Amino acid sequence: PYTVLLDMNQDLKRALGIANVPYTVVVKNGKVVYVHNGYSQGAEKELYNKLKTL
Questions:
Q1: Statement: residue 1 has pLDDT above 80
Q2: Residue spans of alpha helices (H) in the chain
Q3: pLDDT value of position 35
Q4: By C-alpha distance, which of 4, 54, 39 is closest to 25?
Q5: All structural domains of the chain with their residue ranges
Q6: 16: which residues sit within 8 A by CB, 6+ positions away?
Q7: pLDDT bucket at 18, cuts 50 / 70 / 90
Q8: CA-to-CA distance for 45 and 4, rounded, in angstroms?
Q9: Which of 1, 9, 33, 52 has the fewest C-beta atoms lying within 10 Å of its C-beta?
Q10: Mean pLDDT, to the nearest integer, of 32-48?
């Protein structure tokens, strides 16, 4: 049910000045509802909990 986009050439990463990966953005109805930069233990649980609320 979710679209996953990958920045294979890192064009978006450069354009947005993203320093750390992964860089997770959740968009709902054209609006950014969640952003997480980098990896930290437990981040996947935070993302999962956010997705459950949408």
A1: no
A2: 11-16, 43-53
A3: 92
A4: 4
A5: 11-53
A6: 23
A7: very high
A8: 18
A9: 1
A10: 91
